[in-house]
Amino acid sequence: MATTADIRNGLCIKFNHDIYKIVEFLHVKPGKGPAFVRTKLKSLTTGKVLDNTFSAGHKIETVRVETHTFQYLYKEGEDFHFMNNETFEQITLNKNILDAPDLLKEGENVMVQINTETDLPIAVDMPASVILEITYAEPGVKGNTATNATKPATVETGASVNVPLFINEGDKIKIDTATGKYIERV
Question: Could you tell me if residue 105 is left (phi over 0), alpha (psi between -120 and 50 degrees) or otherwise beta?
Answer without folding.
Answer: beta
